[in-house]
Design a protein that fits this description.
mainly alpha
Length: about 240
C-alpha cells in the first residue's frame, strides 16, 4: 500500500482528455449540443485550477468568519445553479432554495463535523470545505430535480401529488448510490483515503458518514424547499 499520493505530471494528466474528446466527437456528429460540453469542460478546468490556488491560500486563514463567508458563498452559488432548470420563477424560488439548503445542509454538516468528527475548532477549513462541497453539491442536484419534476407534474396533478413525485425523483439518484456503493463503485472519499494509505476499514467509516450526511442533507433540504414554494407554485398553476 502506498504511503502517499504521487504528483501527476501535466503530460500524463492530459491523457484523461482523450475519452473526453471522444464524447465530444459523438455529440458533434450526432448534431447535439457539443458546444455546451466543450464549455463545461473548459469551465471545469478553469474552476478547479483556480480553486486549487485559492484553497492553498485560504487554508492558511483559520477563522470562524472566513469559514462562514465561504460556506455562504458556496450555498449561494449552488442554489443559483440548481435553479437553472427553470427561467420563469427563478428569482422567486431562489430564497426558498437558499433557506432550505442552509437549514438542511448546514445542520447536517455541523452534526458530522462537530459531533461525529469532534472537530475543534469547528471552522477548520481543510475539513469543512471538502465536506460542505459534498453536501451542497448533492443538495443542489436534489433541488434541481425537485424543481424540474414539480413544474412538469403540477400541470396535471394537485400540488401534493406533484410534490411527492418531485421529492421521489430527487431521491432516486441517492438511493441508487446507496444500493450500489461497495458493489458497483467505491466513492470518492473512500477511494482517495485508500490511495493515500489509509486502512480500508477506517475509510469505510468515513464513507458511511459521508453517505448518511449527503442523503440526510438532501432529503431534509428538498423537503423544506418543497414546503416553502407551495404558495409560489400555486400562484403559477392557478
Amino acid at each position: 500500500m502506498i504511503s502517499n499520493i504521487q504528483n501527476i505530471p501535466l503530460s500524463q494528466l492530459s491523457l484523461t482528455l482523450i475519452p473526453v474528446a471522444g464524447t465530444i466527437i459523438i455529440l458533434y456528429y450526432w448534431q447535439l449540443n457539443f458546444k455546451q460540453a466543450v464549455y463545461a469542460i473548459a469551465r471545469m478546468l478553469a474552476q478547479l485550477i483556480l480553486i486549487g490556488y485559492c484553497l492553498t491560500f485560504i487554508f492558511n486563514i483559520q477563522s470562524a468568519w472566513s469559514t462562514a463567508f465561504i460556506l455562504s458563498g458556496m450555498a449561494f452559488c449552488a442554489c443559483w445553479i440548481a435553479l437553472n432548470v427553470i427561467e420563469v420563477q427563478r428569482r422567486a424560488l431562489f430564497q426558498p432554495a437558499l433557506i432550505a439548503m442552509l437549514i438542511g445542509g448546514l445542520s447536517t454538516l455541523f452534526l458530522c463535523t462537530f459531533g461525529t468528527l469532534e472537530l475543534r475548532p469547528w471552522y477548520k477549513l481543510e475539513v469543512v470545505i471538502p465536506l460542505a462541497g459534498m453536501v451542497f453539491a448533492n443538495v443542489m442536484n436534489g433541488i434541481s430535480l425537485c424543481t424540474e419534476r414539480l413544474y412538469n407534474e403540477i400541470q396535471y396533478h394537485a400540488f401534493e401529488v406533484a410534490r411527492n413525485k418531485a421529492f421521489n425523483a430527487a431521491m432516486i439518484p441517492l438511493i441508487n448510490t446507496l444500493f450500489s456503493v461497495g458493489l458497483v463503485s467505491l466513492p470518492g472519499m473512500m477511494t482517495g483515503q485508500i490511495l493515500s494509505g489509509v486502512s480500508p476499514l477506517i475509510a469505510v467509516r468515513y464513507q458511511i458518514m459521508v453517505m448518511c450526511m449527503i442523503f440526510g442533507a438532501t432529503g431534509i433540504s428538498c423537503g423544506i424547499y418543497l414546503m416553502l414554494i407551495k404558495s409560489t407554485v400555486d400562484k403559477k398553476s392557478s
